[in-house]
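We read letters as residues; the fold follows as tokens. Both lines appear below.
***
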Amino acid sequence: MMSELGPVIAVVGPSGVGKDSLMLALAQAEPRLSLLKRVITRTPDAGGEEYQAVSEAVFQDLQETGAFALHWQAHGLYYGLPAADLQRQRCEGGGVLVNFSRAVLLEAQALFDPFVVFSVTATPDVLAARLKMRDRETKSEQLLRLARATKPLPDGLLQVIEIDNSGSLDAAVMAAQHALYPPRG
């Protein structure tokens, strides 16, 4: 008997909201979840999430050979979800956490079943403080990111779970776990 595929869990939210921290902590706290390592055309030492760094030429070769379940471009970079890794992780039956772009959520929903969106939020003050603390962008770039933070998700998404990450990471992890796997009793 074939096991049911685990859900693809798209984690989205503005820069500075703590997506990577939440995903890592959630995967460590919940054995039914795993992280998908994306392929990205950025330098290997850029920090943040764990990813496979490739050149644009290598990315195009991978894309042309069908290596990606889904790919997109955002902020001058190319992002790809390795199809073989994603399928293997889903076949193991657990949920697969993936950092997504809002722009491809509807396409992803059409491709993956089950599909869940974690919309990670934080207050504007928290976002501003985190962007300043990580010091990756100029002040004007930070202001642009803060302005984009209120951009809504596309209409038509079937399962969206909002996770507030303004407070402690533990509280956000617990909220996400309870949303995915409600306590029984």
Observations:
- The two ends are 30 Å apart (CA to CA).
- The chain has one domain: 8-180.
- The chain is about 35% helix and 25% strand.
